[in-house]
Amino acid sequence: MRGIFDSHCHYDSAGFDADRYEILDELMGSGSSVTGLMHAATDEASIRFGIETAARYEGFYTSIGFHPECCDTLPKDPKRVLTEALGTSDKIAAIGEVGLDYHFEGYDRDLQIKLLRMQIELAAEYDLPLIFHCRDATADFLALMQEYKPKGVVHCFSGSAETARELLSLGLYLGFGGVLTFKNAKKVKNSFMAVPEDRFMFETDCPYLAPEPYRGQRCDSRMIANIAEYAGELRNTDPQRLLDISAENIKRLFKLK
Ligand SMILES: [Zn+2]
Fold first, then answer.
1. N or C: less crowded end of the chain, CB within 10 Å?
2. Taking a C-beta distance cutoff of 8 angstroms, is the pair 246, 197 a contact?
3. Helix (H) or strand (E) holding 18
4. Distance from the CA of 67 to the center of ligand 1, in angstroms?
5. Which residues, chain by chain, have CB under 5 Å from ion ligand 1?
6. How many domains is the chain built from?
């Protein structure tokens, strides 16, 4: 397969410490099945990594933002860090990954919501789409989406088909990755089937969530071929066609050439 665009990856993760630039050279080199990568930033160091790496590889784009699980390590003025970063690169294509995550005990709901509001408002100000993360926080997340109606993608969508329809009706895109290929992921498969072709995008969330038959191993963006293969079976269509549509959707949302 060719023309793979990974709409959500974390090559700054410690999982790539041993061979980060070897893998990126390979993925971004000529003859690779991968042509585009979107870095999902999580904290200040991750924002820097995204901007630096985007300058190094043509097909590498970045988001900038603070992940809800990084609330403990926020800089004093997160908004200022983002606005200053915006002036330093023309390859910043989104604000992300931002959202709500109530999965682990001890999370600060009010702080997460305040941080998310700031980032949604900033994205609107700069006319940038958002990359959203939502885990165990559907009600609060939906309420904010209804309030702001932002442009963006809900990455690694794992909610019900009903929630998918609600998000789609608000104009959002939905991201699907390795989980789609897991045997017990019936809900995700049903949701994927509910998404019209012009509103889904493939992603890995690598190094996490490798698809079958690599489940449990370190993931990289080439494995989107396996996700597309599986998605093609589900939707009874050609996987390369789905890959191409996904790449088109990514380019449209993030306004890439
Ligand atoms: Zn992520």
1. C
2. no
3. none
4. 9
5. 40, 205
6. 1
CB of 101 closer than 8 Å to CB of 133: yes
Q: How far apart are CA 157 and CA 238, in angstroms?
A: 22
* Centroid of ligand 1 to alpha carbon of 148 (angstroms): 22
Residue 71: Cβ within 10 Å count: 17
Per-residue H/E/C for 186-214: HHHHHHHHCCCHHHEEECCCECCCCCCCC
Determine the distance separating the centroid of ligand 1 and the alpha carbon of 240, expressed in angstroms: 24
Neighbours of 62 (CB within 10 A): 27
CA distance 39 to 49: 9
- Ligand 1 centroid from CA 40, angstroms: 6
DSSP string, 93-150: EEEEEEEEE--STT--HHHHHHHHHHHHHHHHHTT--EEEEEES-HHHHHHHHHHH--
Give this prediction's pTM: 0.97
- The CATH number of residue 181's host domain is 3.20.20.140
Q: In what order do the strands lie in the sheet with 152-154?
A: 4-9, 34-39, 60-64, 92-101, 130-135, 152-154, 173-176, 200-202
Alpha carbons 100 and 69: distance in angstroms, whole number: 8
Task: Identify the band that residue 55 occupies on the pLDDT scale cut at 50, 70 and 90.
Answer: very high
pLDDT tens sequence across 35-51: 999 999 999 999 999 99
Q: What is the pLDDT of residue 98?
A: 98
| Average pLDDT of the residues of the chain | 97
- Residue 97 Cα to ligand 1 middle (Å): 7
Residue 153 CB-half CA count within 13 A? 32
Give residue 257's pLDDT: 80
